[in-house]
Design goal:
It contains 10 helices and 6 strands, in the order βαβαβαβαβαβααααα. It is of the alpha/beta class. The chain has 2 domains: 138 residues, Response regulator (Rossmann fold), CATH 3.40.50; 60 residues, Orthogonal Bundle (Arc Repressor Mutant, subunit A), CATH 1.10.10. It has a 6-stranded parallel β-sheet with strand order 2-1-3-4-5-6, with helices on both faces. β1, α1 and β2 form a beta-alpha-beta unit. The radius of gyration is 18 Å and the shape is globular.
Length: 218
């Protein structure tokens, strides 16, 4: 391990993109890519195993989305800095990932120099938003009137959010149970709790809710 370098884990389900970013970062004299993950569960595991300085992560990933992965990593490893790199310039995403503990939000269309600068900034403990995202956040703040709406996913437990994503991705209760090391009965109990908390009535409603709240993409 090179002393003094920023140790980075890349998390994105697109291999070509990860390879391009790895090449960019390893050209920097103060950066080292120490691991890569293609889904949210893998990056949570790598965070525990490698204890990187910075995780550069997309939001839309299979098995566990970047938002929930951020929550889990910040809960268990608060020292790790998380920088979201995504194509989504959506204020709902921004609000949720910043509330979950991410240090910054950069768009994939940003210049390479902006991405490199953002990594250095979050490593120093600073918060970073792409200029386009800053504008979105301000516009959203100005137009919000405090009115209520559908229950937020923040009202769910971490396990319920995991189960919700996997149900919406089409996994059966048995498959979810195996993936999360739970009994089928426990998974079904989580599903029932989800429907009660969110006032939903069937799997189709859960899928629609997951799409609306940006938990999965279509």
């Amino acid at each position: 391990m090179d002393k003094g370098k920023i140790r980075i884990v890349l998390a994105d389900d697109h291999t070509v993109l990860r390879e391009g970013i790895r090449s960019l970062l390893e050209d920097q004299p103060d950066m080292q890519v120490v691991g890569e993950a293609e889904d949210g569960r893998a990056v949570v595991q790598l965070a525990a195993e490698l204890q990187p300085d910075v995780i550069l992560m997309d939001i839309a990933m299979p098995r566990l989305n970047g938002l929930e992965a951020t929550r889990q990593i910040k809960r268990d490893h608060p020292r790790i800095c998380l920088l979201i790199l995504t194509m989504h310039d959506n204020e709902e995403y921004v609000r949720q990932v910043l509330a979950a503990g991410a240090s910054g939000y950069v768009l994939k269309r940003a210049a390479a120099s902006e991405l490199v600068a953002a990594i250095r900034a979050v490593y120093r403990g600073e918060a970073v938003l792409s200029p386009a995202i800053t504008r979105l956040v301000l516009e959203d703040y100005l137009r919000r009137d405090g009115s209520g709406g559908a229950p937020a996913t923040g009202e769910l437990t971490p396990r319920e959010r995991e189960v919700l994503q996997l149900i919406a991705e089409g996994y059966t209760s048995k498959e979810i149970a195996e993936m999360l090391s739970l009994s089928v009965k426990t998974v079904q109990a989580h599903r029932t709790s989800l429907m009660q908390k969110l006032d939903l009535h069937d799997r189709g409603d859960l899928i629609k809710y997951a799409i609306q709240k940006k938990i999965i993409e279509v």
